[in-house]
Amino acid sequence: MPDYTKYIQEAKAGQEQAFKYLLDLFWRDVYRFQLKRTGNEYEAEEITIQTFSKAFEKINTFKESYSFKTWLIAISKNIQIDLSRIKSATTASMIDLEEYEALVDENDTAEDQIIKEQNLNILLHYLKQLKPHYEQVIRLRYFREMSYKEIAQQLDEPLVNVKVKLLRAKKMLADKIKNTPKSV
């Protein structure tokens, strides 16, 4: 394996090409680890994306005396454990939810519909504040429900670029929502 410490230093300095290099270099290792743990390609891919997102967010905490791959795998393992706990709790509460839904009318009230529309308008407001290429990948993935592969084909970009763009776009969108006063 090539010496990638230079890329870690560049990533710590915020250089996007270094992030891309590290993602390319370690994607397969993290994805395979998760595929063995989950047995589900979709879950493995989602956890791998979350792993790199968290790792790049916390890159300044990485100590070069450790293996970067081991650090990524540890992050990945913790994310998968957390998601499994959430899934178990959700499954247990789904039984109660199903009993509740049997008692409640399935149709949204007019108030429910207005709230959904307002929330969508707020989300679209924040989405329009992103750079166009970030807005585009969010719209393709979540509004048109395209797979990463389909997005890569439509944009004529490598799959890894699409994943990095989507990762960054989601983080920027979350930051905008989190850091804006509630009166918007």
Automatic annotation (TrEMBL):
The keyword Transcription applies. Residues 121-173 form the RNA polymerase sigma factor 70 region 4 type domain. InterPro entries: RNA_pol_sigma-70-like, RNA_pol_sigma-70_dom, RNA_pol_sigma70_r2, RNA_pol_sigma70_r4_t2, RNA_pol_sigma_r2, RNA_pol_sigma_r3/r4-like, WH-like_DNA-bd_sf. PANTHER family: RNA POLYMERASE ECF-TYPE SIGMA FACTO, RNA POLYMERASE SIGMA FACTOR SIGV. It comes from the Bacteria. Keywords: Sigma factor, Transcription, Transcription regulation. It comes from Mesonia sediminis. This is RNA polymerase sigma factor. Coiled coil: none annotated. Belongs to the sigma-70 factor family. ECF subfamily. SUPFAM superfamilies: Sigma2 domain of RNA polymerase sigma factors, Sigma3 and sigma4 domains of RNA polymerase sigma factors. Residues 28-85 form the RNA polymerase sigma-70 region domain. The keyword Transmembrane helix does not apply.
